[in-house]
Automatic annotation (TrEMBL):
Its cofactor is Mg(2+). Keywords: Isomerase, Magnesium, Metal-binding. Belongs to the mandelate racemase/muconate lactonizing enzyme family. InterPro entries: DgoD-like (IPR034593), Dipeptide_epimerase (IPR034603), Enolase-like_C_sf (IPR036849), Enolase-like_N (IPR029017), Enolase_C-like (IPR029065), Mandelate_racemase_C (IPR013342). Residues 134-226 form the Mandelate racemase/muconate lactonizing enzyme C-terminal domain. Signal peptide: none annotated. This is Mandelate racemase/muconate lactonizing enzyme C-terminal domain-containing protein. One of its GO terms (molecular function) is racemase and epimerase activity, acting on amino acids and derivatives.
Amino acid sequence: MKLSFATYRIHCTHPFGISRSTHSYYDIVYVYLEGEGITGRGEAAPSGRYDEFTDDILSVLKSGISLPESMTDPVAFSDIVFPQCKGIKALEVAFSMAILDWWCQMQAMPLYQYLGADPSIAPKTSYTISIGDPDLIPEKVQEGAPFHILKVKLGIGLSEDKAMMNAIREHTDKLIRVDANEGWDLSTGIEMCKWLADQNVEFVEQPFKSTNLTDTAELRSKSPLPLIADENSLYSGDIPGIEGVFDGINIKLMKCGSIFEAQRMIQMARQRDMQIMLGCMIESSVGITAAAHLSPLVDYADLDGNLLINNDPYSGVLVKDGYLTLSEETGLGVSLNSDSENLI
């Protein structure tokens, strides 16, 4: 089994702003596993919020990863590779994608079949309107026209958040999901949740800092809208501690570290009757498509990171009439549509 990797800079169509930062581009790393004429692809899109950075990933890869000569079991193969990733979850999940892409191609099955997911019941995905220039709101709403649900980034202040929602509502009455990205305090959260309840909003994601579960529990007791954990829901081990504080969890592959771990999170949330959302970072179609194979197993999807960039080098999952649509191709079902150097 041969390992190679490549870096690639993805450019946002518009500057992507959330309550704590704004980015115009992200540097990601692709991981490739090649053997027996098959290439497995994976993507690492690290987040500084979790102290993960592209340079750290490259340092680990350049120092060398020891691979088994062959793959007879993807779980056993993963158990050898993951400990060499120095705890970097974005790198672990890149390998997880590449391993399962390779394995499922070898077994002549789509990844969703391996996962026991039915692609015919894949959910709708939301389309994100991030924090930014208010003059761009009409354009962003128009870009979201093919989607039934919008996700709106808030968390910059009570008056600013209401102004942004009002500006969006001048152009659409679509269902909205709100993400405060830890940007509110308790009084703002209470007022905003009550106000948003009359704005055709489905739920609120991560209202407060992840360290502030006390205020989150109080808000949940007063909010007419469900609360979904994001920064409080990294891995399966986080779920018992937030049961009864949040109504649901947001699973992101780049946070949890593997497709297998995402499966564990789904199982644990189901056991606790918690709602499940599948989210993403700003990523290309490799990472988004990998997550989409899990989407029939969850309640909500926010898998639009590849739709918010203008230089996606791969093709994969599609969105048709607002729904995630997976192909019958084996493995991830992604293909290269770029002539960029070093990409496979």
